[in-house]
Write a structure and sequence with these properties.
binds guanosine-5'-diphosphate, alpha/beta, Rossmann fold, six-stranded mixed beta sheet, binds magnesium ion, single chain, 6 strands
Length: 166
Amino acid sequence: HCGFVAIVGRPNVGKSTLMNHILGQKLSITSRKPQTTRDQILGVQTKGHIQTIYVDTPGLHKGQDKAINRYMNRTASQALKDVDVVLFVVDAERWTEEDDNVLAKLRYAECPVVLVVNKVDKLEEKDELLPRMMTLSEKMDFAQIVPISALRNKNLDRLESLVESY
Ligand code: GDP
Ligand code: MG
């Protein structure tokens, strides 16, 4: 069995970090500078007879004036066509207009969309998380909402087994 997982989200939310930690190797480039991931980066994970293909998409962008943005939007949208599950990565600390733009595109996804709330390590108070997740859950009918810290490897095993169940 082969599964296809798309990791989407605006720049800087931690998509590359997540993919690197799941795959356990530096495949994707992480950077503070947005848009370091210029093209789709594919990673394959083999666990027994289950093979999962991860695609780290470049961000879905708002600025349509530049050719590069148009191109990146196109590859990101195309990545959504044949996937089994979408991991929509957001920053636990803030929701931006760019997140809204990504969300708008995900409404057309035909597969389950899992909201991955990353960087939970940055929340100062632990009891901030639940209300945060409640607010986020109203944005769309997500298949699941999973809080993680890609950087600190928190809850990634849960996310991985969830992905395997699709
Ligand atoms: P991408 O643009 O979505 O691929 O984001 P990157 O993976 O390049 O990460 C952007 C920045 O966020 C980097 O400086 C990462 O180290 C940082 N980052 C990613 N995940 C986490 C996390 O769980 N916690 C914290 N505190 N920082 C993170
Ligand atoms: Mg990246």
